[in-house]
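Ticket #4471: structure output looks truncated?

Reporter: J.K.
Steps to reproduce: submitted the chain below (123 residues) through the standard prediction queue, then opened the result file.
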Amino acid sequence: MTDEKPKNILGTELQSCCADPITGFLRDGYCRTNQMDLGTHVICAVVTDEFLEFTKSKGNDLSTPRPEYQFPGLTAGDGWCLCAMRWKEAHDAGAAPPLKPESTHEKALEFIDKSSLEKYYIQ
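Returned output as attached by the reporter:
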């Protein structure tokens, strides 16, 4: 077991993505991952209407509230930990949302090259 803190794509300590709504595979506000996270929810995105429509068209409706899962539904401007491959798919389709690099887990670099991610950095 290690006490090492997770790193972001900048090589520094991973920062919180969003607490309202609470995000992350572990629902702790961080885009951390583990072996149970089959979707690899490591991209801290600030969702846009364009992205929400795109992901809904792919069968993942993130805008409709699902109270049975304590999911409030997202609106443009919300922070959310996205699956790396869904973000990449949206990128390839021209619908990727911006991302917070300090809150995006370094594991994202296993799926997406850093130069692609850098074009979407926001503070």
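Triage note (M.O.): checked the attachment and the full token line is present. Residues 49-57 form the longest helix (9 residues).
Status: closed, working as intended.
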